[in-house]
Structures are given as structure tokens and as C-alpha cells.
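Re-running the complex after MR caught last week's input typo. The corrected sequence lines follow. Everything else is unchanged.
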Amino acid sequence: MYSVIRTVFKEEHEMFRQSIKDFIAREISPYNAEWEKNKMVSRESWKKLGDNGFLCIQAPEEYGGLNIQDFRYNAILVEELGLSGCSGPAIGYPLHNDIVFPYIMHYGTKEAKAKYIPGMISGDLISAVAMTEPGAGSDLQAIRSTAVDKGDHYLINGSKTFITNGYLADVVVVAAKTDPKLGAKGISLFVLDKNMEGFSKGVPFEKVGLHAQDTCELFFEDVKVPKENLLGKLGEGFKYLMTELAQERLIVGLAAIALAESAFLSTLAYVQERKAFGKSISDFQNTRFKLAEMGAKLEQGRMYADQLVALHNDKKVDSAMASSAKYLLTELQCWVSDECVQLHGGYGYMWEYPVARAFADARVQRIYAGTNEIMKELIVRKLLK
Ligand SMILES: Cc1cc2nc3c(=O)[nH]c(=O)nc-3n(C[C@H](O)[C@H](O)[C@H](O)COP(=O)(O)OP(=O)(O)OC[C@H]3O[C@@H](n4cnc5c(N)ncnc54)[C@H](O)[C@@H]3O)c2cc1C
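Corrected-run output:
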């Protein structure tokens, strides 16, 4: 049996975990295959998450939130979604909770918070964050979308690509240049909503994995954005991105370890059932050694992830630490899912087997939220300081 001693979570967290587990078993897992075919989760699932109090739990009561300032609950939601193997939901829901919501909560004007946060809590409003453009991914300073001050509003033009939750999104945090001459200091963040004239979307991309995720392009053609939809101060967008990306990278790392554990658990069951040469696959020394290697590294990864959750709860995880977490845990996920496919033989390559999906879904984890090469840049910058 694969099990890890855990000290970070208390009784109240475990009760929350059980309610999430029950919810996932009832409302997520049975629908995941259908969502993969549709290239998106259902809108209804967002509403159900909201009805059960699983969205934006940090939000203050004045917006209808639970005001729970304990990151361990966020981590449990990510972990349980990951363990369920439903990777689309494991990425899309936390992106709303732990990545987009903080931008609006931390930097939004009173008007923007009042307009968007109640709907984000209830699941009526689905959110996304749009930084990447066709010509600018790793090199964010090279974005070309512009926001021009027109006195009583900003006029936004440009396009974004690869946007998670993009097709369903009602609310999108968008990075645009407010002063193209200033490089990073010329970037600002805005909240756009899908009803704004000139805002349109592409169809969801055909991706290698994460099939239940509605990743798409967004287009802005003379979109009039009210002044109160500017996040924070003009020209400080890049700074805000660098601050908030630490939690995004930690979340990707937490999803990675849970998705890896999910692939490993299904493989543990499979190798004991499957027979070859008159014995179980698990009787071969190679299989036993592979399982031991994976079990040991997953235990190490899980303890590391738990420690990061505790540290982040105390606001002690900096950019380099979050980058290390994203880098190490996503590399672990990719290695584990590849080994798990091998232990399944040909069945591991069949989409109906969870391990085939785990393999396809894992790959992108090393690419988004900053590629692992960019993570190494951020890690070494701190080392050489
Ligand atoms: C499924 C999916 C979902 C996504 N969701 C979102 C989202 O919700 N919002 C959003 O804004 N973006 C999103 N992205 C975009 C993602 O963050 C970018 O794809 C990523 O940052 C890499 O940018 P790029 O694709 O332009 O690659 P490039 O930047 O062109 O990189 C190509 C290669 O060059 C390497 N490279 C680049 N610069 C350096 C360097 N300085 N040193 C060493 N190597 C370097 C990279 O590591 C990579 O291997 C998503 C992408 C995918 C695939």
C-alpha cells in the first residue's frame, strides 16, 4: 500500500477533504469522459462547486465568501482533484480559485470586486488569466496587446493564446501594454468581461492532453474597458504577475504530485492483476524495482509538497521556492506517468486506461505557468544573488 505520513492537515482539514472526495465522486468523476469529448467541463459543474462552497474560499463575507484564510483548504481541493485523475478539472477550477481570484481580490477596485467576486464565488462567473500571446510566451515583456487611455475608459486591442478556461470564461484578467516604450514597466492588468463589445474567442484547441480543458484564443478589437477595471496601478502589471505567479507555480506543483500519485495507484492495482509467463507482472524483479523507485520518489515528493503547503500558509514561499516546486514535481509527474504506461504494456497506450490519459495530460505541466527552463532561470537567479 502506498501511504505517506502527513502532519500538515488537522481534523477540520480532513473533514473538508472527505466532503470534497464525496463531491468529486458524485459530481466530477462520472462526467469527466463526457467533458473530455466536449473539450470542456460543464457550466453546471461550476455552479455545483459554488453551491458547495468550494470556490474562492478566501473571499470576505461581504462578497458572500467564507473568509477562510488557510491555504491548506485550497491545497486539499487541488490534491483531491488530482488524485481523482480528472486532470482538466484539476487544472481549471484551481486556476479560478488560486490564480485569477487573487488578482481581483488583491488589486481590484471596490467596483470591480463588487461586480465580479460574488459571481466567482457562486460559480456563475468562470474566470481566466490571459498573458500569453502568439508572439510572446516565456518572454512576457514582449506582449503586443495595448491598452490606450481614452479619458473615461481604456481601449484594448490585441490577442491572447492558450488561455485555460478561456472558452467558458466570463471574466478574464488581461495583461496589456499601457506604455510600449517602457518594457516591463509599461505593462498593466485589466479585468475584461465577455459581454464587452469587441471581445471574442476562438474555439477550444485540439490538445495532446487535458481534453476536458477549454483552452482557446481570445481577441480584443477596440474593447472599451471602464477605468475601474484597471487592476492596481498603471504600469505595475508585470510586478503583480511576478508576485502572483509564485502561487500559480506552487499550485501546478501540487496538482503534479497528486496526478502522479493517481497514475501510480492505478498502476499498483494493474500490475497485481495482469499476468504474463504464468505470474503477476508485479512478480518480475523489474516491476518491483520500478514500483520501489516510484514509491520512494513519490513519498519524498509528497513530503516536500506538504512542507511547501505549510510554508506557503505562513507566506514563506518565495518565487524561487515555487519555481523549484513546479520544476521538481512536474518532472516527477512526467517520469512517473511514463513508467506507469510502460508497466501497462499496450493497454497503457489506450485512451480508456487512466494511465494513458495521465501520460498525455502530464506533458504540458512542464510547459505552462512558465516553462521548466524558465523555472531554472528563476532558481539560479536566487542562488547567484
Ligand atoms: C494547455 C496550455 C494552457 C495554458 N494556459 C495559459 C493561461 O491560462 N494563460 C496564459 O497566459 N498562458 C497559458 N499558457 C501559455 C504558457 O504559459 C506558454 O505556452 C509558456 O509560457 C511558454 O511560452 P511559449 O509557448 O510561447 O513558448 P516559448 O516561450 O516560445 O518557448 C519555446 C522554448 O524555448 C525555451 N525558452 C524560452 N525562453 C528561454 C530562456 N530565456 N532560457 C531558456 N529557454 C528558453 C522554452 O523553455 C521552450 O522550451 C498555456 C499553455 C498551454 C499549452
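None of the earlier attempt is carried over here. The mean pLDDT is 97. DSSP finds eleven helices and ten strands in the chain.
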